[in-house]
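User: Could you check the structure of this?
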Amino acid sequence: MRNVHQIREVSTLSFNERVLQEAEDRRNPPMERLKFLGIFSSNMDEFFKVRVASVQRRIELGHSGMEAVLEVLAHKSRELDERFRTAYAEITSTLAIEGIKILNEQDIEHSAQDLEPWLNDYFEEHVLPSLVPIIIHKSRTFPQLTDGALYFGVKMWGDPIRYAILEIPEELSRFVELPTGAIMYVDDLIRHSLNDIFYIFDYERIGAYEFKISRDAQLDIDNDFSEGHVRKMERVLKQRKGGRPTRLVHDATMPMGLLQLLRERLKITEYDTLIAGARYHNMKDLIGFPNRRSELSFEELEPAPHPVLDRGRRPMMNIIKEQDLLLTYPYQSFDNLIRLLREAAIDPEVDEIKMTLYRVARRSQVVNALINAARNGKKVFVSIELQARFDEKNNIKISGALTEAGATVVYGVPPMKVHGKLLLIKRKGGCLAGLSTGNFNEITGKLYVDSTLLTSDKNLVEEVDKVFDYLDDASKMRAITTPKFKHLLVSPFNARKTFMKLLSREKKKGKKGYVFIKVNHLTDDKIVRKIRETADAGVKMDLVVRTTYAMLPHPNIRAISILDRLLEHQRIYIFGHGEDRAVYMSSADLMERNLDWRVEVAFPVYDPQLQQELADIGEIQVNDKFKARVLDEIQSNQYVSNGSDGRRAQSDTHAYYQRAGAEAPQLSAAEGI
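Assistant: Sure, the predicted structure tokens are below.
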């Protein structure tokens, strides 16, 4: 298929390949390589639940050509699975040399029999009580198997042959740390103890073979919310458990009779991907592989001091009243946002706090601060997106906690998702706003590169408040007039139009024009055509695109993707050079859904010093020679340079912020009060 890379699903798979490359990259420490395998596995699970499911739906609707796309995806997925297994074998061999051995049930039987008593006790106490084996009978309904859960298909050879299904419960620790310092999968402990589970049956021998299924994760939500947003979401979440299968991954040694039984009873069709894999599945758990050796991981990334906020213990709101601030984490500490919310929660001058929440931590300090504010008598208004995929249950939970504390909670603008990341603090003597490129989440704030602009600029504060008014009106089913924005770019109202105008402005400059775009996704057809027209006019462009990319090569476009120890998540848009440049940051990527079908917010950065900071970061990114891949016509994921001594954007960015924090003049103790 020519230009098949331009199809979103194939481009997403190309990104997953880049994650796998990090596991294959021997420049990374072995524990980090193992973690990248876990991230790759998690990404592939979501890929089949969402993207492959989308292709299957289009096939069912009669869209021509989608069968060929599905074939490409299945072929590439099997290829990546082979590479995954090769990388896993190499990494675990490296760990064994370092003294971290992974033992299986055969090792116990042949060379570690002294561990038998300990393993038997561990199994009896921690594992057996959680196991629920289900014997398969032709006359009985096949059990409902959960998407993403890990199962054993069990075969008992004898007269008669019997089959069973055994789920490996998610609450069990996947890795058992043995007294010798070795590691054992709980899977292998169960294999070792099969006779203790099925002892009531007579059989000649018994075997257990892992498998898992991926199901369509799309939630079919109608527009009738008369039953209430939360109750409706709780009901439709049950759909996901019974979604149609999109992939069956199984142990390659599984007996054919057992495999055929699973295919028949799970209704695996020709349009579903069947992957004969290794003995272990759900390898996303490798993210939590036990690590007692810090030298086998990346050196800890210490946040750099913020050049303004860490110069004393002045109230943050007083500082923001004086100047705009930019927080970029994890290079700088996300804790400053928590600090701001905690200050606002107890400040007698604060009347109201408004915030949008999309994905938050399970034990969120952000949510705790909002609850504290409500209990302190502040008006708290929170827009929570119940349709944040795979975070729906957590968002339902936190909406209940906020409501119970007295906060006003609304649920977006159905059927659109509210993806913009906004904070508004109304305070006597002046309001302030926070506008972010990513989630207000202290956990991902240590793993994802994002930025938040903190400002008291009256124009921005008023327009942020206007967005919240729109969300409030929508939640109450009021008649809504299209809001007007002069400074913010708000989807679906003016973001697309303004981005097109800014590209046209640079196009008129010809060779004197410049565009820098850093996003996760660049796939919108109209924007892609406009970018190409602008490049045709001689405008030089630098594009840093993390995941999906739909541009063909152009001599005036330098396009790369950076994947390193941190996930690049910022969206930065720079149009022009010097005093003439326009600089925006955003929660939105350049996709049709973000520009037309979601509530997103792009925000201008007016402060010249902060503009220069973002221009500096952009220059560091485009000069990466260590982890940057060229986004070529077939997305071959070739590194810009394979040299280990090249410039590494994330290391250079960290050093940039360390210098900025160190060079800032420090306040005396008295001045900081």
